[in-house]
Amino acid sequence: MVGILLLTHYGLGESLAECAAHVLSRPLPQLRYLPVYRQDDPDEVLERARAMLREIDTGHGVLVLSDIYGGTPSNIAYRLIEPGRVEAVAGINLPMLVRSLNYSHEALEVVVSKAVTGGLEGVMYMLPPSTNPIG
């Protein structure tokens, strides 16, 4: 099973992990989160992240999901990448995480693809019922 590490600002990763567990109604043993705070030394966070990767890598790889591309969490995630073993995707949202978890039994490259499509397809402009042709 592919491990998933949420590397995000403050409590975002914890909140997303709790929401995913609620939506999926099952334990998520392959999921971890690591918050990054303003005062954190990025090199120290990197070492904590590497330790977490070792915990959740069962030999099938790990997907690291971060929030804002270019922010400290995504910069740390970038430093963790080992193609084919540790991959990273920025821009996490709940549909991305749920899709990743639902496909975590697949190969790492499949989980990466499902994460990206889940994130993209989970963003919708909602029209009021009077203007929605199917509502």
From TrEMBL:
Q: Which PROSITE patterns match?
A: PTS_EIIA_TYPE_4
Where, subcellularly, is it found? Cytoplasm
The GO biological-process annotations, alphabetized, read as: phosphoenolpyruvate-dependent sugar phosphotransferase system
InterPro entries this protein is in?
Bacterial_PTS_sugar_comp (IPR051471), PTS_EIIA_man-typ (IPR004701), PTS_EIIA_man-typ_sf (IPR036662), PTS_IIA_man (IPR033887)
UniProt GO molecular function = kinase activity
**Which Pfam families does this chain map to?**
EIIA-man (PF03610)
Q: Which UniProt key words apply to this protein?
A: Cytoplasm, Kinase, Phosphotransferase system, Sugar transport, Transferase, Transport
Coarsely, its chief localization is cytoplasm
Q: Name one GO cellular component term.
A: membrane
**Domain annotation PTS EIIA type-4: ranges:** 1-123
Name by which UniProt lists this protein: PTS system, ascorbate-specific IIA component
State the organism named in the record: Chitinimonas taiwanensis DSM 18899
